[in-house]
From TrEMBL:
Keyword annotations of the record: ATP-binding, Nucleotide-binding, Transport
InterPro entries: AAA+_ATPase, ABC_transporter-like_ATP-bd, ABC_transporter-like_CS, P-loop_NTPase
PANTHER family reported in the protein's UniProt record: OSMOPROTECTANT IMPORT ATP-BINDING PROTEIN OSMV (PTHR43117:SF4)
Name by which UniProt lists this protein: ABC-type quaternary amine transporter
Keyword Acyltransferase: no
SUPFAM superfamilies associated with the record: P-loop containing nucleoside triphosphate hydrolases
Length: 349
């Protein structure tokens, strides 16, 4: 797979001597969503901001599509790379439409083209243009502002999008919805995304691969979310994924027909005579399946596909699905940047 952004032995020491990033080598593949996670101050934002030259590296190279970013004019570079930050940074005295149209205007698009693109993007992020285009940022909720920020960053369909805690200001429910919608939009557009977050849940739910950094921008592990949760490569990663790792893994697995028992014809009434309330569908996440099983005294929950009941799920079925998920990730060739040591399997907890 082609590489979109390559960090090659990158170092950043700030003027006061703080080494934010010591020696980082990392490749972001074309079309993937790579999440950077790690404790506060470990160098995530610095790493991200070096990609669009808001921060200049002290040494090392950053290649965008094979081209050294320091050879590209910084302003031209930022027009090629979308950038979304936590508090969005919308222009307060410009309407939503004007905010989203900022970069197209700078690029000299005519008024009609800019307007058409702006409206299309507002639709895409779930803000009806007729309702929202003329509002000012102070007339929006935090989540709506965040959506405008995403629309603005995508206005010129940049191949690469850098996001720094983009959903941070949104409440947990709105945040989950925004994450799901963002993932859908990203898949539709094929954008390469580098996302900084301190939220491991957000990282494993959204990302194709997760890079865990520790102090000084040290790369502790680079792997797909399942492998990260099932086989933390170091104590620092284990610490970060914490005791909730198994539960987070459940959220990544899906109910599949092969894990089901034949439907026993138990009907709508369970063993103790109460009506069954739980119904699962093929493709439901395993955490929802587990919750449904826990609430069902018979230990079996019917699973639907379309209008049909295709079987019943029990606890061994959930475990089988979970084991397959983890084993599949272990077998996969570990994805890692050139020059990075393979995560040690021995650290598996
Ligand atoms: N302009 C600056 N001058 C000096 N030191 C800086 C500057 N910007 C960041 N740092 C330091 O560099 C280190 C890495 O900061 P950075 O913002 O990259 O971390 P982060 O992982 O994004 O943190 P957080 O999760 O808290 O946002 C920190 O020790 C920080 O204090």
């Amino acid at each position: 797979m082609a590489t979109a952004i390559a960090f090659d032995h990158v170092r950043k020491a700030y003027a006061d001597g703080t080494v934010a990033v010591g020696d980082l080598s990392l490749e972001v593949r074309e079309h993937e969503l790579l999440a950077l996670v790690g404790p506060s101050g470990c160098g995530k934002s610095t790493t991200l901001r070096m990609a669009n030259r808001l921060v200049e590296p002290t040494s090392g190279r950053i290649l965008l599509d094979g081209e050294d970013v320091t050879d590209v004019d910084a302003v031209a570079l930022r027009r090629r790379i979308g950038y979304v930050i936590q508090n969005v940074g919308l222009f307060p005295h410009r309407t939503v439409e004007q905010n989203v149209g900022t970069v197209p205007r700078l690029l000299g698009w005519d008024r009609n083209r800019t307007r058409a693109r702006t409206r299309e993007l507002l639709e895409l992020v779930g803000l009806a243009p007729d309702r929202y285009a003329r509002r000012y940022p102070h007339e929006l909720s935090g989540g709506e502002r965040q959506r405008v920020g995403v629309a603005r960053a995508l206005a010129t369909d940049p191949p690469v999008l850098l996001m720094d805690e983009p959903f941070g200001a949104v409440d947990p429910v709105g945040r989950r919805r925004l994450q799901t919608e963002f993932r859908r939009i990203k898949d539709e557009l094929g954008t390469t995304v580098m996302l900084v977050t301190h939220d491991v849940d957000e990282a494993v739910r959204l990302a194709d691969r997760v890079a865990v950094l520790s102090r000084g921008g040290h790369l502790e592990q680079l792997s797909d979310p399942v492998r990260l949760l099932a086989a933390p490569a170091s104590p620092a990663v284990a610490d970060l994924v914490g005791t909730g790792a198994a539960v987070r893994l459940l959220a990544l697995g899906r109910v599949e027909p092969r894990d089901l028992q034949p439907a026993g014809g138990a009907g709508p009434v369970s063993a103790n005579g109460r009506a069954r309330s739980a119904v699962l569908r093929v493709g439901d996440p395993l955490d929802a399946a587990f919750a449904a099983l826990a609430a069902e005294p018979t230990g079996r929950v019917p699973v639907h596909e379309g209008d049909r009941v295709v079987g019943e799920l029990d606890a061994p079925g959930v475990l089988a699905a979970l084991h397959r998920l983890v084993d599949g990730a272990q077998d996969a060739v570990p994805s890692r940047a050139a020059g990075q040591p393979e995560p040690s399997a021995g650290a598996r907890g």
